[in-house]
Amino acid sequence: MYAIVEIKGFQYRAEKNAVLRVPYLKTAEPGQTLTFDKVLLLREEEEIKVGQPVVEGASIVAEVIENGKGEKKIIYHHKRRKGYRVKKGYRESYTDLRVTDILA
């Protein structure tokens, strides 16, 4: 059994006990349980339910594992023969979730 769920504008395939790395959720504290009800597709055995736009009554229950920052990404701009160089970097914040249950 799996589901396609939308979290903060991104779509993830959620299976039981799967760990999902999603963009940072401000209200999520480690150990907290969250419910996501924007389930776009739900598959149970051979039956597939496709939502228009969401599957009614379906939701995903997930536990927050941790909040953190990813690896540093470097952005480098330059213009040839002009002496223009800019080097910037950033680290994206994320939240790790463990799917505990898929409710149909």
Automatic annotation (TrEMBL):
Transmembrane segments: none annotated. GO terms for cellular component: cytoplasm; ribonucleoprotein complex; ribosome. Keywords: Ribonucleoprotein, Ribosomal protein, RNA-binding, rRNA-binding. The keyword Zinc does not apply. The keyword RNA-binding applies. It holds the Pfam family Ribosomal_L21p. GO terms for biological process: translation. GO terms for molecular function: rRNA binding; structural constituent of ribosome. NCBIfam families: L21. This protein binds to 23S rRNA in the presence of protein L20. PANTHER family: 50S RIBOSOMAL PROTEIN L21, LARGE RIBOSOMAL SUBUNIT PROTEIN BL21M. Belongs to the bacterial ribosomal protein bL21 family. Part of the 50S ribosomal subunit. Contacts protein L20. This is Large ribosomal subunit protein bL21. It comes from Cloacimonas acidaminovorans (strain Evry).
